Predict the 3D structure of the following.
Amino acid sequence: MNRRDFLKAAGAGAASLVVPSCVSASSGPHKRPNVIFILIDDMGWPDVACYDSKFHETPNIDRLADQGMKFTDAYAACPVCSPTRASIMAGQYPARVGITDFIPGHWRPYEKLVVPENRLQLPLESVTIGEVLKEQGYATCYIGKWHLGGKGYSPDKQGFEKVVLSVKNRNDKQVSGFTDKAIEFIEEKKQEPFFLYLSHHSVHIKLEAPQELVDKYKNKPKPASGVNNPVYAAMVEHLDTHTGRILKKLDDLDLAERTIVIFFSDNGGLRQAYGGYGGPRQIVSTNAPLRDEKGTVYEGGVREPLIVRWPGVVKSGTICSVPVTSVDFYPTFLNIVGAKGSPNQPLDGESILPLLKQTGTLERRAIYWHYPHYHHSRPAGAIREGDWKLIEFFEEGHLELYNLKRDIGEKNNLAGTMPKKAAALQRKLAKWRKSVGAKMPTPNPDYDPARAHEWARRPRR
């Protein structure tokens, strides 16, 4: 047995130890909840009707919220996809995992800073939530976008027995084909506890949707404010339709009452697409009232829709405003099935079960982001503690401080008028970076202001 296999076996074995929880591992297969985790690509916080979209129609997702709990302050651990996906799989902040940009990432060779190397795969030594649930007797299935490593690092190496990474479908971002496979898995495993991770490519660009839906939104009156793209709106509704197919299958098989359904997005919405996707600077959507978009640590880049339906545990129609983040899913799943994590894999999140059951709140004081890369903004990190959020930009050490309760749009920078508060949060952010081994950008000896905007493929060591 090599080192990787030994660590994996040791971690999985430790993860199987039973501890007190809401559902005992000995409760029997019909009493243990199934779990369906639906992950959307690039869906912004206000993209669905129940999050106050005035243009998009999402009746099935809205019904899910009506039957469960809607989180108003849920966050992705990073403003781009791969790091957030790693945080869900491993229960660790992206900075700890070493995946801090999308894989493979990109590079501006003449900018002020040289950004740190980005790990190109989720380490096989990581004990994923798929492995934990498989060890607990769950049938496991991964369907859709992975984006955590190529050959040799796919979901079948990380605890998922059935894996579907692509299907042949046109004009729907593979939504319907993935849903078909998901329904097949649900039917196959209806007599045993199962964990289905359904990771859609939608609503990521390029923009494409069934023409009849596009025409519907072209002809639909637009609200007085907000940017609304008919093709993007059609993509959102198309995704909603296929989410409804999953929910209907659970109803048809009498599985809804013992199945947890989680709906989440990997990062904020994209405001505009640059070239190659229907023309330069094509407006896609807006994250208003949140500031900015995917690729930034402003709220528009990291605040996400999160809905959890769990009949008999989560009260219907409830709303939770406690800040939660994607690293919390892993310890929540451990709590649900009654398992410990690996002693070799520190978890950065906290179980949100007390919030779901409305029996208590969370112990932690702050949540963090580390995005030391150039994208739609500059390399930066952020901390949210209570209603306060501090952003630190790494080029010049510029600080921005916001009170999100009074200023959800992050318009009024208070760092100048509240320097002590800003400094205290900056110290906590720096201390956290050290604790997780976050890699920082360094001065670039090839800095050229005239060419700083240029993109290039980074040479890999």
About this structure: The first helix runs from residue 3 to 15. The two ends are 28 Å apart (CA to CA).
